[in-house]
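Project standup — Tuesday

K.O.: blocked on the structure for the chain from last sprint. Re-posting the sequence here as requested.
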Amino acid sequence: MTAFPKPLAGKRIIDLSLFLPGPYAGMLLHSFGAEIIRLEPPDGDPVLRMSPDLHRILHRGKTIERVDLKTPQGQARLASLLDGADALIEGFRPGVLARLGFTPERLRREYPGLVIASISGYGATGPYRDHPAHDMSVLGVAGYFSLPSELSDPIARPNIRLADVLCAQSAALSILAAMVQADKTGQGCVVDTSIFEATAAPVLLSLLARDDADAPPEQIGLVMADSAPYRCAGSGYVCIATLEDKYWAGFVDCATPADSPLRDPAYRTRAGRDADKPGLARLLADLFLTKPREYWAELADQHTLPITPMWRGKELLSDPQMQARQLVRQGCDEHGAFDIPTYPAAFDGVRE
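H.V.: unblocked you, prediction finished:
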């Protein structure tokens, strides 16, 4: 039977990072077989105190040592682990690792094949290089709020640590690419990445393609009344995304009576729906309030429409697609069994 691929088996990665971006990047690389050895400070990773369950998920299968890198003994331990290692992940502010005695020059000289991944808030250069950074502060300055997502233009943080997660995924891909290059050439490199850059990159993908970025929300093409969440009867919500005219036609055909104003010919095209966003939003809000979330979800399923229930809390774990795709599996450590997210891709049908 085909097994989940472990192309990084035999690779050793030393991880000095704390909180989420670096550890999550290491978790992704561990999924592909890399050995991850973490050196945490004597009092441990702050995540262990903030959320023991998250710490357990992030660091499953990793080796964790408590080491004081400010001491000669701790520095000697790191040096010994770097001998034969393939990559080093560090999440200090720029310059801190050098002050601990591990300058780029020393690392290049003593460990020429080593990939050094420096994950900071804003990168090793620029006016923000020494600024403290966490998910929320980076979201603002990296432009996350530069384009509205709804007509009401609510300013609210994402419901996940989005900037941290984007950085972790970008860092893991960069580390993987750098290790492939090191295998070919025998020479490592410094991967200088940041939460700021990883967040700004997808923002720029949308922002640079828009001529209407500074217009009111109702005049921005990305903001659509029929691509939004709506409250249903009761306490549930649905998300509708009838971007294409064919889906809009299918929706009004099965969901509205013959005299519904939503059947106005003006709404049949994307341009027509966008020409009256506030009015269309009011009509949709009134419609969805007439039935519970379950009704709309079943209707969408019957007619193959892009309308989905909005899950709240751990309702998500009962989603049939979530279960069919095996996005959660059971892990086990010295404390017993626990649920973990699997890697978000299958290889020849096999999950992690």
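K.O.: great, moving the ticket to review. The mean pLDDT is 95. The domain at 12-206 is CATH 3.40.50.10540 (Rossmann fold).
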